[in-house]
Design brief:
With 290 residues, the chain is α/β, with parallel strands linked by helices. The chain is built from seven helices and 17 strands. Helix content is 22%, strand content 32%. The model has no long low-confidence stretch (mean pLDDT 89).
Length: 290
């Protein structure tokens, strides 16, 4: 499918939903109280009136989630392929209208792979298809920038701090050789795959020069093959996680030349792959955090 470059970005509704709800609980002492829990809900996606998939989500930015999902599934090539995304929480549905349809949609969505994503993520087709064609930019990150990134996440107000049980993802840019990391987008959802899809949708809606600088992706979840592939498809060559990495995630990162950093908390981290993209400054690890 080819879409003329002159087509505008899609029209998106702003169908926000409450991220948490209060429930009554009883603790180990028998004391009653209330706590906040994430408000997970189902969202069924229809593309040109054809049911595609049901996503389990918090519903913070559902239009961007749907747009990013279609991009990361490689069902569309750009946001301009889509005319509109309309979300209606009363019926739990997202209606996607494209300009020219999706070529061979039945064939391309016939094979479904259930992933390890929280909330049980699904991808269509071959996870490894075309990854050897991905060309990542020659981004390098200093250890000081890595620490700045981790600290920005620590300070970020989040649903996780108030209710737990969610994953967070963020997109940063770096100044070459510097010490700072600028956060542009932070998203939480019940699954890390939803969070990265939402960021992909957000990126697709930005002007071409809005994200000048080298990009780094952060996730609270483990680096599975799905997370590494989606990051690489977004043109992000460095991924940081506070968790670890799977065997397939490591294999894919090595194959595409992506830097995968895990166990990143405070001043500790482990670089699993692509260490040539990391400018090590081991003396910083011995300093006390500010």
């Amino acid at each position: 499918m080819t879409t003329p470059l002159s087509l505008p970005l899609p029209r998106l509704t702003q169908a926000r939903a409450a991220l948490t709800r209060e429930v009554e609980v009883v603790d180990e002492h028998g004391a009653r109280g209330t706590v906040s829990i994430p408000a997970e809900r189902d969202l069924t996606v229809y593309v040109d009136r054809r049911e595609l998939v049901t996503l389990m989500t918090l519903g913070a930015q559902p239009e961007l989630l749907v747009l990013g999902y279609l991009l990361n599934q490689r069902l569309i090539e750009s946001a301009s392929d889509v005319e509109s995304v309309t979300v209606d929480w009363e019926v739990g549905a997202a209606a996607v209208k494209t300009h020219a349809g999706i070529d061979r949609i039945e064939e391309r969505t016939a094979k479904k792979v259930v992933t390890t994503g929280c909330g049980q993520g699904s991808v269509f087709g071959d996870l490894m298809a075309d990854i050897d064609n991905l060309q990542l930019p020659p981004t390098r990150m200093t250890q000081a920038q890595l620490y700045a990134l981790v600290n920005a996440i620590r300070l970020q107000e989040s649903t996780y701090k108030s209710a737990g049980s969610v994953h967070g993802c963020a997109l940063f840019t770096l100044e070459p050789g510097g010490t700072e990391a600028t956060m542009h987008c932070f998203v939480e959802d019940v699954g890390r795959h939803n969070a990265i899809d939402t960021i992909a949708g957000w990126c697709a809606m930005q002007p071409p020069d809005a994200l000048a600088g080298d990009r780094v992706f952060y996730t609270t979840g483990r680096l599975t093959s799905e997370m590494v592939i989606k990051s690489a498809q977004m043109g992000v060559p460095i991924v940081v996680s506070r968790s670890g990495i799977t065997q397939m995630g490591h294999e894919v990162a090595t194959r595409v030349g992506l830097c995968a950093i895990g166990r990143a908390t405070n001043r500790h981290f482990v670089c699993y792959a692509g260490v040539d993209r990391l400018v090590l400054q081991p003396e910083l690890a011995r300093r006390s955090p500010a």
